[in-house]
Amino acid sequence: MHMQEKVNVFWYRRDLRLHDNVGLFHALQEDEATLPVFIFDKYILDELPEDDARVSFIFSEIQKMRNELQEKYGSSIATYYGYPEEVFKEITQDFDVKAVFTNRDYEPYAYQRDANIKAYLAEKGIEFHDFKDQVIFEKNEVEKNEGGMYLVFTPYMKQWKKEFKKISADTFNSENRLHNTLQNSRLPNLSLGDMGFTKSSIEVPDYHLEDDFLENYEETRNIPSINGTSRLSTHLRFGTVGYREVVQKAASAKNETFLNELIWREFYKAILHHFPETQNRAFKPIYDDIKWRNDEAEFEKWKTGTTGYPIVDAGMRQLDKTGWMHNRIRMVVGSFLCKHLLIDWRWGEAYFAKKLLDYEMASNIGGWQWVAGTGVDAAPYFRVFNPYSQTDKFDKDKKYIKKWIPEYGTNTYQEPMVEHKMARERCLETYKAAVKKT
């Protein structure tokens, strides 16, 4: 296996594509050949069930890229299963590595992992180059004129759009340089079974971004019974789509609602970067004093979609069967858990982290803290979603509900586990008590 020619490593993470990939583009520009690698990280995988749909999806996307590289260029992607620092020891033993290229990730674990790898490589005299690829603006690139992070979305969004007008959206056509990948199609390869996983029955649907879809997005995006959303979220999460082209397309649409959703994603990433403690603490510390009820049996009913609130149950069953839930319904089920049942938002966040194909820590924490009223630019705590009026507004003919709850309308469907008016009053008292303490 040992090769004396110098190579540059491109380390794949959340950017599973050959085209428009910033870090890959920069690696391929170098004189040395590029060795692409992907590490199935034991720190992450050890927590997951054996039929985890995300692992299946990542695995099949990597196989697609391997096949294309093998057929066209006689090269491949080396895949490893282990702890990143140990895998890098193996890579640096087997190859003469000049530098490692990768795209930045903004979650607390990723920062720690990358710092460890960078330190290890530095000891060996190997350079580490990281690039911005999954966002247009990162860290401090959109901030107030006087400096500091925006804590409210709308001014952040306006500033983002101003900054966006100033930049030229470069294309990083990595796809045109793939002949500079290391010509070796026999690189380390794994099967799902080698890692103790089996193929999931859950498929990730393709995304769609037609012009008329973007045009009408504002009207269609809240109706859970139609295909009114782009289904882009999982592809953004794993980088199987070039982010810059998506943003360009959204920015050129007459209706800016879709672009604003992409900007929310960047807003939450910037918040998590500046306030990593919000991973497990309320952004507004007074709300860490809420006396949650945290009833395990009630949490179970919420998870299994047997609360007796049809719109909530439909959403939870959709999540269980497909690994995805409509965004409007995410707000409804989240509000129900925190406000109606007084269960800590962190319980809901952790459950979504297990189930959602498109799980992104920044957006998930942002969304959960938003419905709980504890977060940055959150819904005020006294705003309690009414599942019945949400149903009248967004699923009037109960199409969505009937799709996911076959027993709806029969006497086998469960009675509501808690009465709306009582739950709302109990919630307001509990929140008020927490706020009063300070």
Automatic annotation (TrEMBL):
Keywords: Chromophore, FAD, Flavoprotein. Residues 6-136 form the Photolyase/cryptochrome alpha/beta domain. One of its GO terms (molecular function) is deoxyribodipyrimidine photo-lyase activity. The record marks W292, W345, W368 as: Electron transfer via tryptophanyl radical. GO terms for biological process: nucleobase-containing compound metabolic process; response to light stimulus; response to stress. InterPro entries: Crypto/Photolyase_FAD-like_sf, Crypto/Photolyase_N_sf, Cryptochr/Photolyase_FAD-bd, Cryptochrome/DNA_photolyase_1, DNA_photolyase_1_CS_C, DNA_photolyase_N, Rossmann-like_a/b/a_fold. It holds the Pfam family FAD_binding_7. Binds 1 FAD per subunit. FAD binds at residues 217, 229-233, 258, 261-268. Its cofactor is FAD; (6R)-5,10-methylene-5,6,7,8-tetrahydrofolate. Belongs to the DNA photolyase family. This is Deoxyribodipyrimidine photo-lyase. It comes from Psychroflexus salis.
